[in-house]
């Protein structure tokens, strides 16, 4: 038997014992070492159209391979790993399929990225959002790397926004301006590479406030990772002619409400990016070079999952990434 934190009903989580899963051909069983709590987990737990109940969340996991299905390379057993959660049929570990809120779960062997066994598994839970950021960044990096280092505007002070700061700083960005709403996170943004921080709560007019703080009228490269339509509208207003605007935020059921001619007249490039598929190996390598440890603010034993969830929900807690530890 294994332990699992099960989403039994809207807003309800319960520790249960479940049968130990057995990997099939091409599959491996993962013994979960740590799992990050993501804002998307909270949406799933609250209840949404994508998944029903019961379910076992957890897509930001790190773990150890403890059982192999047929046809799997025997050298994988015992290795510390992370991995792409998307299965061949489009389902995902941690959503339609059980994830890292369980002590053990099943995934595909070909999706794994091997890590050094000495790696900090709590920090490694951030490789999943890092892969998401990298996949998006790789779509717009030519705007950053061509000619004079470009100034960058980033909306969002959560893990995705903070990881984007690290990526563009490492890539040689010019001045980095970050817009968010939590002072503790904005302070952290400065420590990981931002030059200018703007608390949108302290601006009467968002675009004017950003321009005044940065001393800049327009930006050639903008990242929207907040999931707030107001931020996306501001980004389109602040984009220079031919600007790249990378959209990483999740807007749930929100619909567009802007002047389409803004895109036409400024020849804006709106670029959406979802998931980290294709960027996992690079994210694994980069995870040893970036300051991921600064983003892990809270750790809890998996058995204390209720306290961990409450910390994530509490906007005054100072939490950035909260991690459940199975070991």
Shape: globular
Task: Please write the CATH class name of the largest domain.
Answer: Alpha Beta
CATH architecture descriptor text of the largest domain: Alpha-Beta Complex
- Number of E-state strands: 15
Could you list the spans in which at least 5 consecutive residues all have pLDDT below 50?
none
- The CATH fourth-level homologous superfamily of the largest domain: Medium-chain alcohol dehydrogenases, catalytic domain
Describe this protein with a few key phrases.
alpha/beta, Quinone Oxidoreductase, Chain A, domain 1, Rossmann fold, seven-stranded mixed β-sheet, 15 strands, globular
Structural commentary:
By secondary structure, the chain is α/β, with parallel strands linked by helices. The chain has 2 domains: 2-126 and 287-325, Medium-chain alcohol dehydrogenases, catalytic domain (Quinone Oxidoreductase, Chain A, domain 1, Alpha-Beta Complex), CATH 3.90.180.10; 129-272, Rossmann fold. The protein has helices at 39-46, 121-124, 127-145, 159-170, 183-191, 206-214, 229-238, 260-266, 280-286, 305-313, and strands at 2-9, 12-18, 27-37, 60-68, 80-83, 104-108, 112-115, 152-155, 176-180, 196-199, 219-224, 239-247, 269-272, 296-301, 321-325. Strands 3, 4, 5, 6, 7, 14 and 15 form a 7-stranded mixed β-sheet that branches. A 6-stranded parallel β-sheet has the order 10-9-8-11-12-13, sandwiched between helices. A hairpin with a 2-residue loop joins strand 1 and strand 2. Helix 3 crosses helix 4. It is globular. The mean pLDDT is 96.
